[in-house]
């Protein structure tokens, strides 16, 4: 169990560029979550996958954002035409969903995005 | 929608002393989970403790314990015998246990804990 990993850890981009982040969950975990954390705030939910199916998207996830989880393994989060307001830490978490809902979400180290 | 409020942006405690971090939440649901997560500087978030709303007994994990008051919708974290390694941002979080809802976490704004010698 190597934990949740995210790549890259830091990304600096210019406004208008596209960026893509990757998350590798803990291997046996069937659920994967993306959150966004801005300075001085707690993480906010963006989207959720169970296996390869994207089951919920937050209203925070504008049409410039897209997430995928092909084959139910790693996930990618793409932001198109980045804006300065997209600057934040993007956190990925994974969990093993159980029928009793006692799952625990394990977080990755995050990708810090700065849009200039 | 559920909300989580942490009214203490910063707290300080001396090493070996005890500190309590406050958290209140608002929900119309009766079945849910509450969590405290710790986020050390530049390190990833880790789970400190979890409380199931249907359990009256307060959860404990070594030096960490909670005071869960369901009627008051209060969920405080007590850290005993504080250590330098406890210095971090602490987030209170809520998750619904209602069948059919997503398992997303709703976080508070966090409390930064400083531990002094």
Features:
heterodimer, A: 116 residues, mainly beta, seven-stranded mixed β-sheet, four-stranded antiparallel β-sheet, 11 strands, 0% helix, 48% strand, globular, B: 117 residues, six-stranded mixed β-sheet
Q: What's the helix and strand layout?
A:
The complex is a heterodimer of chains A (116) and B (117).
Chain A: E1 5-7, E2 10-13, E3 19-24, E4 31-37, E5 44-50, E6 53-57, E7 65-68, E8 75-79, E9 88-95, E10 106-107, E11 111-115
Parallel strand pairs in A: 2-11
Antiparallel strand pairs in A: 1-3, 3-8, 4-5, 4-9, 5-6, 7-8, 9-10, 9-11
Chain B: E1 3-5, E2 10-14, E3 19-21, E4 24-26, E5 32-39, E6 46-52, E7 60-61, E8 64-69, E9 74-79, E10 88-96, E11 106-107, E12 111-116
Care to describe what's here?
- The complex is a heterodimer of chains A (116) and B (117).
- Chain A starts with a strand and ends with a strand.
- Chain A is globular and about 45 Å long.
- In chain A, a hairpin with a 2-residue loop joins strand 5 and strand 6.
- Helix content of chain A is 0%, strand content 48%.
- In chain A, the strands form two sheets. In chain A, strands 2, 4, 5, 6, 9, 10 and 11 form a seven-stranded mixed beta sheet that branches. A four-stranded antiparallel beta sheet of chain A has the order 1-3-8-7, with no helix packed on it.
- Chain A has no helices and eleven strands.
- The model of chain A has no long low-confidence stretch (mean pLDDT 92).
- Chain A is mostly beta strands and 116 residues long.
- With 117 residues, chain B is mainly beta.
- In chain B, 0% of the residues lie in helices and 51% in strands.
- Chain B has no helices and twelve strands.
- In chain B, strands 2, 5, 6, 10, 11 and 12 form a six-stranded mixed beta sheet that branches. In chain B, strands 3-9-8-7 form a four-stranded antiparallel beta sheet, with no helix packed on it.
- In chain B, strand 5 and strand 6 form a beta hairpin.
- The mean pLDDT of chain B is 93.
- The interface between A and B is medium-sized, with 28 and 23 residues.
């Amino acid at each position: 169990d190597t934990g949740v990993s995210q790549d890259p850890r830091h990304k600096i981009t210019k406004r208008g560029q596209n960026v893509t982040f990757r998350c590798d969950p803990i291997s046996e975990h069937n659920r994967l979550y993306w959150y966004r954390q801005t300075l001085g705030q707690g993480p906010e939910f963006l989207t959720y996958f169970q296996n390869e199916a994207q089951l919920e998207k937050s209203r925070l996830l504008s049409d410039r954002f897209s997430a995928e989880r092909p084959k139910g393994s790693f996930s990618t989060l793409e932001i198109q035409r980045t804006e300065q307001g997209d600057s934040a830490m993007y956190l990925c978490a994974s969990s093993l969903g159980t029928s009793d809902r006692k799952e625990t979400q394990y977080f990755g180290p995050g990708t810090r995005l700065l849009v200039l | 929608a559920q909300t989580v409020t942490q009214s203490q942006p910063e707290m300080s405690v001396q090493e070996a002393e005890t500190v309590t971090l406050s958290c209140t939440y608002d929900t119309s649901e009766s079945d849910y989970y509450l969590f405290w997560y710790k986020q050390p500087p530049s390190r990833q978030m880790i789970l400190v403790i979890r409380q199931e709303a249907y359990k009256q007994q307060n959860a404990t994990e070594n030096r960490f314990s909670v005071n869960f008051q369901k009627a008051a919708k209060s969920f405080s974290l007590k850290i005993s015998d504080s250590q330098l390694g406890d210095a971090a941002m602490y987030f209170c979080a809520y998750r619904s246990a209602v069948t059919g809802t997503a398992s997303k976490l709703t976080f508070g704004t966090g409390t930064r804990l400083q531990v002094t010698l």
